[in-house]
Amino acid sequence: MRLATLRTGDGTRAVRVDSASGTAVEIGEWPDLGDLLRQPDWEKLASEADGRVRMLADLASDAWAPVVPRPGKIFCVGLNYQAHILEMGRELPTHPTLFAKFADALIGAGDEILIPRDVAGSVDWEGELAVVVGRTARFATGAAADGAIAGFTVMNDVTVREYQYRTTQWLQGKTFESSTPLGPVMVTPDELPAHARLTTFVSGARRQSASTAGLVFDAAALIAYISRIVTLHPGDVIATGTPAGVGQASAPPDYLVDGEQVVVSIEGIGALRNKLRIVDPAWQSTARTRA
Fold it and tell me: What is d(CA 169, CA 23) in angstroms, rounded to the nearest whole number?
């Protein structure tokens, strides 16, 4: 199945996306995918949904909300593809490198990435496969870790490098408000190819291309590791890390400029298409709040 959160004139709605018919079908009363996943029978509710139908071809680019608009937790994994680890001049890790994002950072698959003008000189892209949790997980291993996966989606872990490297802690460069696209849909595990191809294009030029087979720690291993630290709940998100090809690794570093479009796609899921917009902080503080 392919599930998403759509913005409508009546607020957001959890939907099942039926590619064959080109439609999005509302799933009962659930306002977003996070709310739906908190229902023990979410898969049945989604598969049997017969609510209002919308044609995908009629949807505006900003109709796609972050696939989970308000996750309780967003874990991100740094340095999790071997080629990216080497391009950044680091050694292969023995444990996952974890940092966090906050829900205020999330935007939809077609929204603008908003970065304040005074920090705009080092904005980088990081296309990633993200895991959405569908079952509560604590000390999960093996089949329990696999069973906690609701599905997969796409994230662009947009990073302000100058802030990231101010200290040894990365969070400050990773969670700028309205900077992180997530979506457009979540696909259940049966729909994701075993070795899905991730690609990132910046202004039409391919900058990243890698198979998810290159992950050092896969989705189940990350759930097992994180769930030893804290309980994972339905709707939580884990971004699994970015492959080689980020702007920071270029010589000299190559960063995004105002108006550039970044397209991150993963085989079997879909694509994020977002333009960078440099804004004055005063404007951003009064901007329309997105779901």
Answer: 43
Number of Cα atoms under 13 Å in the Cβ half of residue 45: 17
Contacts of residue 242, defined as CB under 8 A and 6 or more positions apart, other chains included, come to 80, 81, 84, 126, 127, 128, 157, 208
Contacts (Cβ under 8 Å, ≥6 apart) of 204: none
Q: Are strands 261-266 and 11-18 parallel, antiparallel or unpaired?
A: unpaired
* Sole residue written with tokens 């959160």: 5
Can you give the pLDDT of all 291 residues of the chain as single tens digits?
Answer: 999 999 999 999 999 999 999 999 999 999 999 999 999 999 999 999 999 999 999 999 999 999 999 999 999 999 899 878 777 777 778 899 999 999 999 999 999 999 999 999 999 999 999 999 999 999 999 999 999 999 999 999 999 999 999 999 999 999 999 999 999 999 999 999 999 999 999 999 999 999 999 999 999 999 999 999 999 999 999 999 999 999 999 999 999 999 999 999 999 999 999 999 999 977 666 554 556
C-alpha atoms less than 13 angstroms from C-alpha of 206 in its C-beta half-sphere: 8
Query: Which H helix or E strand runs over 44?
Result: helix 42-47
The model carries a pTM of 0.95
Q: Cα separation of 5 and 254, whole Å?
A: 33
Q: Read off the tokens for 72.
A: 């309780």
Tell me the backbone φ, ψ of residue 16, rounded to 5 degrees. Answer: -100, 125
Is-contact 172 288, C-beta < 8 A? no
Of 150, 182, 191, which is closest to residue 42 (Cα–Cα)?
A: 150
In the block, which residue shows the tokens 């609701």?
Answer: 150
